[in-house]
Amino acid sequence: MSNTRRGFLNAGAALAAGATSVASRLGAWQSAATPVPPRAAGPVRPASEVQVPRMKFGNVEISRMVLGCNPFYGYAHYNNNFSASMKEWYSEDRVCEVMHQCNRFGINAFNYAHLDRCPQDLARFQAEGGKMHLIIQVTAGVDAEMLVKTLHPLALQRQGEIVDRAYQAGQMNTVKEWCKQVRDLGVLVGVGTHKPEVIAQVEEEGWDVDFYSGCVYNRTRTADEWKKALNGELLEMPNDIYLRSDPARMYTVIRQTRKPCFAFKILAAGRISDAGVEQAFRTAFASIKPIDGIYVGMFPRIKDEVRENAERVHRILSGS
């Protein structure tokens, strides 16, 4: 690693000890809850007085909290039971209702992935009058040109796990080539990752990209890297270990690039306790730049997470 990149990353180590301490528990998702009803036919409900503040991204303004898609299709990153609960609860009606609820609070951007039922749900949401700027995470085997022609997204980003595997294999040239091809499609180009080292390398090499999406927890370490981090131990689910010292490192790299960034998994995929959620949001916005945002998935099976998160972001960013 070059001295430049090492210096770019080491600044985060000093902050790790001061990272916010939060309890680890799943919460009360198993409790009984009132289902979200399908949206009634007719005009979309009026906007709430509380609106999520916006940021300039490309030639438009988008909400600084962007809707994530993982909970819609059971990608809990917690355990199989939680994933199954999400997938079972999130019918087409509920996905669309949550997206409309996001619109009511000024959330106008969606971190879409061309997986599962997402294309059909998005089409229904749009047919019902919903509007979202799409920041698409492009997964393996999905044609970027097709996405641009059919969905007219604002931006495409290479999915983080694909990028991380390329980094670990010494094949970042494949990601760079993908970015060049997407540039010719006329949309914003981004790189997703779970590793601060990836952003540092892309910055150092001066790639032609517009933004980054960084997971604040490095959940794609190799088995050897996990053993080193955990003093020789290896947990049962090595791809979903969340270290409290990780966020400070990613936040440091995000602050050091002038390009817009989106931080994601700021709640450690549901591991943050209810008492720690407010602080996790505050830490995120205090740790990123004014031109940056966050991706947040919603699972309002127990409570109205859309309203609560929107009110929380509005309160934090407005200083009220």
Features:
alpha/beta, eight-stranded parallel beta barrel, 320 residues, 10 strands, two-stranded antiparallel sheet, 13 helices, TIM Barrel
Structural notes for this entry:
With 320 residues, the chain is an alpha/beta fold. The protein has one domain (60-318): Alpha-Beta Barrel (TIM Barrel), CATH 3.20.20.100. It is 41% helix and 14% strand. The chain contains 13 helices and ten strands. It has helices at residues 3-10, 13-16, 80-89, 92-104, 118-127, 144-151, 160-168, 172-183, 196-205, 223-229, 246-256, 274-287, 305-318; strands at residues 54-57, 60-63, 65-68, 109-111, 133-138, 155-158, 188-193, 211-215, 261-264, 293-296. It has an eight-stranded parallel barrel with strand order 3-4-5-6-7-8-9-10, surrounded by four helices. α6 links the parallel β5 (133-138) and β6. α1 crosses α9 (196-205), α4 (92-104) packs across α5 and α7 crosses α8 (172-183). It starts with a helix and ends with a helix. The model is unreliable at 13-38 (pLDDT under 50).
